[in-house]
Amino acid sequence: MESNKALWTPTTTQIENANSTQFIKILNDKFDSKLTKFQELHRWSVENPESFWDELWYFTGVIGDKGKHILENEHLMPGATWFSDSKINFSENLLNDKNRKLDADAIVYWGEDQQKRTLSFAELKQQVASLSQYLRDKDIQAGDVVAGFMPNMPEAVIGMLAASSIGAVWTSCSPDFGVQGVLDRFGQVKPKLLITANAYYYNGKTHDCLEKIKTIDAAIDSIENIVVVPYANESTLDNSTAYPQILKDFAEAEIEYTRMPFNAPQYIMYSSGTTGVPKCIVHGIGGSLLQHLKEHILHVDVKPEDRVFYFTTCGWMMWNWLVSCLQTGATLMLYDGSPFYPNPTILFDYAEQENISVFGTSAKYIDGLRKESLDFTKTHPLNNLKSILSTGSVLVPESFDYVYQNIKKDVCLSSISGGTDIMSCFALGSPTLPVVRGELQTKGLGMSVEVWDDSTKSEAAINTKGELVCVKPFPSMPIYFWNDAEDKKYRDAYFAKYDNIWCHGDYVSETETGGLIFYGRSDTILNPGGVRIGTAEIYRQVEKLDEVKESIVVGQEWDNDVRVVLFVKLSDGLTLDDDLIKKIKLQIRSNTTPRHVPAKVLQVNDIPRTKSGKIVEIAVRCCIHGEAIKNSESLANPEALDEYKGRVELTS
Length: 652
Hints:
Blueprint: E1 6-8, H1 12-17, H2 19-31, H3 38-47, H4 49-59, E2 64-65, E3 71-72, E4 81-82, E5 87-88, H5 90-94, E6 105-111, E7 115-120, H6 121-137, E8 145-149, H7 154-166, E9 169-173, H8 179-189, E10 193-197, E11 199-202, E12 205-208, H9 210-219, E13 225-229, E14 241-242, H10 243-249, E15 260-261, E16 265-270, E17 280-284, H11 285-299, E18 307-310, H12 317-323, E19 331-336, H13 346-353, E20 358-362, H14 363-371, E21 387-391, H15 397-406, E22 412-415, E23 417-419, E24 424-428, E25 435-436, E26 442-443, E27 449-453, E28 458-459, E29 466-470, E30 480-481, H16 488-494, E31 502-510, E32 516-521, H17 535-542, E33 548-558, E34 561-570, H18 578-591, E35 600-603, H19 617-624
Parallel strand pairs: 6-19, 8-9, 8-10, 10-13, 13-14, 18-19, 18-20, 20-21, 21-22, 34-35
Antiparallel strand pairs: 1-25, 2-5, 3-4, 5-15, 6-7, 11-12, 16-17, 17-30, 23-24, 24-26, 27-28, 27-29, 29-31, 31-32, 33-34
């Protein structure tokens, strides 16, 4: 099937009813701009950044004390400042009464298939009020750090909202992190209070959290109080406060919102940490909120009647992104546990039974369903589902085909891409644009994204591969890195390659229609014979084969050059032999170029990945070169790396 085929096209009615179409009408009336299409809106938004973000504030219904200044130092990255004289409170916006009935569902929760709960908006607001008052009683103040060691459950959302109502800073990671992984993160930012569940479910098993918490508490001196949320049982710690007791003690509390400067800290996020101790990335209140609302309302087209789901943990930025959806009046759909337990259809069981309208997941999950040949069209009508979102890695063209053939034909499939670094996306979707096989539909509104040719350090031609950069500032740039004197780590992370230009580290090309094709991370680009090859180009071909479940490809320094080494995880019961190696190489050679064909193909039992499911090519590359892995605690399965060390096949 051709790669530029449109798999879905919006109807005239869908375009007319889209939030972005209403926004265009407002801009046309006010600025006489004569915009008609989404890509014209994008062009206008980057040419008129102050007007765009100013109008977005009003259109999305942001609550706050809006000042006169929109953008200062607009030519500096970092250094530009947004809404410098405005004040805002994150929780006040997410808990607003706009478009809501107090008895309407605010949160629907499934914990695997073992716990199911629903919180009305009134119940959510009251629990936030109770916990907020408790935090105030414990002397939590604006700027203090509150940490969550939590499953993706309602109390995690409540903890964030309670902390944010005071102006405190929220940081979190998922409870499957080992103790050292938690200390590497929370130990740097010194939280004053810790909220944790006593246990969590995964893959049908109950995992205790309290022993980890004892060790963490003993190691981090700044922790003054611990709140324990009963989950799988009622156990707590001697020096902790049980969450249900807080709800009883402060049952009559009312929320007080402390409005903070627009650029005061809201979240501390963490880099993956696969090359050393994680960097602590601090995001501002207003930038996070405004960017998320733009994406929810204008790109995903979220409306108050929607029920929005993203499969994520509290250690991935998609959790923070998802939670902001509360502001729109939509219902937040939370799921915690294995996406394949008690059966591989569980997430779509959830979507069907709970009438989910926006379903977000990872590209690897969709590819996993494709490998299992699951056909949901016969079992799950998904009548309410209007959008499927995918991120975390490149969504290959065959996975686009799978969604439309085996999940739902009439759905807007939007592959999106951004990162923890920006708490949002550089490229997203739009229900007013066609879905083209293998492409991300559009650049983010207000994001001056370009593809640069590395040799000329300027914009590359259409359909030419290059670095994804952003040439103008945007509100969700980090406000700083924690403990980063003179912004050295910050500048080194994004501005070392091009001065005053954000270089994100993705290898991409732009199409004639304004869509983007992603080929992998530019720091893992293969370079045999000086020819740049995106790893996704190889994954796409290899994982078409039924024999291959997953793969990971790296470059090995060899004979004053680089040779391509491919590791494959095969389907159950299969062993890599010469015939299969030939088949893999032929598949790659026939569909790419001879340069893409790996010099070595080796079998492994597992592919190492981060907690958020991303494969870690850099760690594998370090392994095969005998270099130390600086922070294996950041991996979900660090033991998998043992298979890559000292492979005799790589010595010749």
